[in-house]
Amino acid sequence: MVHDLLSQLNDAQRAAAAQINGPMMVIAGAGSGKTRVLTFRIAHLIQNGVDPFNILSLTFTNKAAKEMKHRIGDLIGETHSKDIWMGTFHSIFARILRIESEHINYPRNFTIYDTADAKNLVKDIIKEFNLDDKTYKPGIVYNRISSAKNNLISSQDYINNSDLMAEDRMSGKPRLGEIFAQYDLRLFKAGAMDFDDLLFKTNVLLRDFPSILLKYQEKFQYILVDEYQDTNFAQYLIVKQLAARHANICVVGDDAQSIYAFRGANIQNILNFQKEYGIYDEFSIYKLEQNYRSTKTIVNAANSIISNNKEQIKKDVWTSNDEGDKIKVHKAATDNDEGQFVANQIFYLRQQNGAAPSDFAILYRTNAQSRSFEEALRKLNIPYRIYGGLSFYQRKEIKDLISYFRLACNPNDEEAMKRVINYPKRGIGDTTVQKIVVGATEKNLGIWDMLERSPELGINGATWNKIQEFITLIKSFRVALDVRNAYDLGHQIASESGLLKELYSDRTPEGVARYENIQELLNGMKEFSDRLDDANPLQIHTLSDFLIDVALLTDADQDKGEDNDRVSLMTIHASKGLEFPYVNIVGLEENLFPSQLSLNSREEMEEERRLFYVALTRAEKKATLSYALTRYRWGQISHCEPSRFIEEIDERFLEMPEETQRPSSTRFDQERSHFFGVNNRFSQKPTTSPAAASAPSARNEPPPSPIAPPRNFKKVSTSAPAIPSGEYSSAEEIIVGAEVMHDKFGKGKVIALDGQAPDVKATIFFPKEGQKQLLLRFAKLKVMG
DNA sequence: GTATTATCTAAGTCT
DNA sequence: TAGATAATAC
To answer: Taking 80 as the threshold, does the pLDDT of residue A143 lie above it?
Structure first.
C-alpha cells in the first residue's frame, strides 16, 4: 500500500516524498510536480503513523491548500486529511492569534484591516499631525511601515534605530517613526491588525510566551512550506521557531520563481537553508528537474532567459515533451490592436484546435492593462474572467456592509466606524466624527468607548440623540452575534442599518448594480451558513466566522462555480502556480515589463526577469508574446520599445514579426487588419453566422444567478458561444445618436455612452420621460430602424 | 450638515 | 481616464 502510493512518482519525486524525518529542501523547477511531491509526502507521512493533527502545511493561496487537502483525501481518505492544518501563512497565523488573543491583549474577534483600511488610517494620522500629505504620501508611509514589520521591527525599534531615522530625515520625513507608533497604537485600540501584524504578532507571541511556543512546536511536529523562495524574514523566523524542536521541516521552492521581494520576500531564505539545517544528519536536498508541463521550446526558452540572472541555484530543467510550436512574437501598432490580436488568436485557436476558453490565459505586468483585452474579447463574445483588480470585496457597497458586520463584532474598529456612522446619512457629520476620533486619541479610548461618552466632548443634544440611536442600532446587532447565524444576522444588519433601503432607492443603473451586489453577498453568506451549519448542526456559524473567512480571501481563491470555462486575465504575479495550454504574455515593452521602477538596480531587474520566467513557464503548449508600439498611459499616448526580455530569448525558439509592416503569409489573415490599422475588418470573416442575432450581448445578459456565491462574482464577460458576427451584436449598434426603444420609457435617442463593459452606461433622452442614465446590461434596449 | 461642481493627481506587483 | 478631494452653494 505504502509502496503503491509512491510508485506513482518519478525517482526524484519519490525520494523527496519518502523522507519522513529531518530537515529537507526540495528545489523544484517550474512544472516539475512539486505540489505532487507535497501531496504525496503528506499522505505518506500519515500512512506511516504521523497524526494529521501534527502536520502544518503552509501554502501560497488558500485555494492551493484546499486543493491539496482534497487530493490527500483522495489518496488516503478524508478522515485523515481533514485535521491537517493547511493554509496560507496569514490565515494559519490569524487562526493561532485568535486562539491566543488574550495573551497579547487583543479581543478574540479582532478585525483584520485590509490595505485600504490601513492606508486610510495612515492618512488620517498624517492629517492629525498636520503634516503635508504630499511629503508624507500615505501609500509610501504605509509601505515603509509594512516593510519594517516584515523585518520584525516594531515602532519602538524603528524610532531607536538611527539608520532608519537618518534615512527618513534624508527623505524629508523625519516624523515617520512617530506616525508608525501612532498607527500601531490606533490599530491596537481598534482591536485590529493589518496583514503584516498577523506575522509580526505571531512572532511576538512565540517570542514572549515560551509555553505557547512549546505548545505549537509539539503540535506541529511536521512542517511543510510551499513557495519557500517567497517567504520574508517574519515568516522565516516563525517557521524556524516552530521547527526548532523536532526539525522535521520540508521546504519546497524554486529560487528562479522568487517574485515577491517587493513585499519583503528574501531569496536568501532558500539560498541559506542548507547552511542553517545542514548540521542535521538527515538533511537532504532534492532537485526536481524534469518538467512535465511544457514543450521543449518553452522549457528551453525559459532556461535561456533565466541564465541572464547571476544569483541562482544551479539546476537543469528539461522535458521529454514534444518540441512544440515556436514562441510567436507579435508587434501591434497600439494597445487596442494588441487586444484585438490576442482575442483573434484565441478565437482562431479555438476553431483550429477545439480549445476551450479556459485553456487560455492572458498575462500582464500591471492590472491597468486588462482593458484592451476585455474589450476585444467581448467583441468576439469570448467569455473571460479577470482576477485581481477591484475585487468584489473591495467594492464600496460591499465594504460598507462588511463594515457594519465588523462593527457588530468589534465596535472599536475605527475604520469600520468612520465608514458607516453616517452612511446611510443620519446627520452625524464629519466634524462630529472628527471630534470623536481626536477625543479618543486624547483620552486614550477606543472609538466606541469614546462614542458612548460623546457628551464629554461637548457634543450637543440633537447630535447626541442621533449618536445614541446609532449606538442602540449597533448594540441590537451585537446581542444577536452568537445566536443567529451569519446569513440571518447579515440580512438583519443589511436591512436595519438602512443600507438596503438606501441602495434600493437609488434607481440609477449603478445603484441597481450595487443593490444586486449586496444581494450576491447575502446569497454567499447563506451558502456559507447553510454549508457549515449542516456539517455541524450543533454549532451555528456566526458572523465573525464569516468575517474571518472573508478578510484573507484572495482573488485566486475565488473561482468555484459552474461557469468556469473562461479565458483567464491576470497579472503574472497572480498566475504563480497555475498552468494553461495557451498563454499570451502581453505588454512586453521597456518601462512596462520590465517596469521602469526596476531599472535602478540589478536586483530589481533580476526579479522582473524571474517574473518573465514565471510567465513563460505557465504555458503548456503554446506561448505568444506581444508588444505595442504606442500605448495609452495616464491618459496620454506614449511610444514604446520592445522589451529586452524578447531579445534575451534564444532566437531559435522564436517566430519574430515581419520587419516590414506587412505580413508575408496569410496564416492569420486577421493580422492584416492590425498592420493596416483597420479596426474590425476581421469581422467580415466567413465564419460569420446569422446566429449573431441571438448572440447574447450587453443588452440581454442574464441577471446574476441568485444562488451564486459572491466569490463567483467577478467582472465577467457576457457569456456566449463565441461567434464573431458580420453584423455586430447589438452592443455595437448602440452608439451615440442611435434611436432606441425602451420597454418603459418608449423611444429615445442615445446622447452619450460611457463606462466600461459590462458597465457601459448610456445617457438617453426620452421625449416622454426626459433624460435617463441606463446601464446597457440591464436596460432592455432595442435599436430602431 | 449635505449636495453639487471643479480641480487635481495618480497607475506596480499582493497577503 | 477616473477617482478623490476641495470648493461652493444650499
So the answer is: yes
pTM here is 0.81
Average the pLDDT over A255-276 and give the result.
88
In angstroms, the CA of A348 and the C1' of B11 are apart by 32
Measure the CA–CA gap between A201 and A207, rounded to whole angstroms.
9
Q: Is the CB of A424 under 7 A from strand C?
A: no
One-character DSSP codes across A473-490: HHHHHHTTTTTS-HHHHH
Neighbour count for residue A354 (Cβ, 10 Å): 8
Positions on chain B within 7 A of a protein C-beta: 1-3, 9-15
Residues of A annotated as catalytic are 34-35, 226-227, 257, 618
Residue whose entry in the numeric block shows the C-alpha cell 496569514: A90
Q: What angle do CA A761, A765, A770 make, to 5 degrees?
A: 115
The overall average pLDDT reported for chain A is 83
Q: How far is residue A399 CA from its own chain's centroid?
A: 16
Of all protein residues, which has its CA closest to the C1' atom of B1? A429
A634 sits within 7 Å of strand C by its CB: yes
pLDDT confidence of residue A751? 66
Span A213-232, average pLDDT = 96
Alpha carbons A570 and A567: distance in angstroms, whole number: 10
Quote the radius of gyration of chain A (alpha carbons, Å).
Answer: 28
Task: Identify the band that residue A752 occupies on the pLDDT scale cut at 50, 70 and 90.
Answer: low
A123 touches strand C (CB under 7 A): yes
3-state secondary structure of A286: strand
Strand A360-364 and strand A85-88: the pairing is: unpaired
CA A428 and chain centroid, separation: 35
Question: If DSSP codes are grouped into helix, strand and coil, which group holds residue A361?
Answer: strand
Is the C-beta of residue A636 closer than 7 Å to nucleic acid chain C? no
Provide the pLDDT confidence category of residue A642 given band limits of 50, 70 and 90. very high
Q: Is the pLDDT of residue A641 over 80?
A: yes
Distance A592 CA to B12 C1' (A): 9
- Give the distance, in angstroms, between residue A775 CA and nucleotide B7 C1': 27
Residue A5 · residue A230 · CB < 8 Å: no
How long is the CA A570 to C1' C1 vector, in angstroms?
A: 21
* Nearest CA among A362, A367, A33 for reference residue A226: A33
Q: Quickly count: other Cβ atoms within 10 Å of residue A125's Cβ.
A: 22
In the structure, how far is the CA atom of residue A127 from the C1' atom of nucleotide C6, in angstroms?
15
**Tell me, what's the pLDDT at A743?**
53
- Which residues sit opposite A630 in a β-bridge? A334, A639
A132 sits within 7 Å of strand C by its CB: no
Asked whether strand C has any atom less than 7 Å from the CB of A633, the reply is: no
Residue A199 near residue A91, CB atoms below 8 Å: no
Is the pLDDT at A215 greater than 70, yes or no? yes
Place of cell 463593459: A757
* Whole-number pLDDT of residue A557: 66
Percent of chain A at pLDDT > 70 equals 81
Q: What is the mean pLDDT of residues A770-775?
A: 56
- CA gap A707, A19 in Å, rounded: 45
* pLDDT value at residue A775: 55
* Cα separation, A363 vs A724, whole angstroms: 23
Element (H, E) at A746: strand A746-754
Residue of A392, A366, A412, A389 whose CA lies nearest to A113: A412
A754 CB closer than 7 A to any strand C atom: yes
DSSP A393: G
Strand C positions closer than 7 A to protein CB? 1-2, 5
Q: Render A53-79 in DSSP notation, one character per residue.
A: GGEEEEESSHHHHHHHHHHHHHHH-HH
So what's the pLDDT on residue A785?
44
Residue A296 to residues A257, A319, A325, A585, Cα–Cα distance (Å): 19, 6, 9, 18
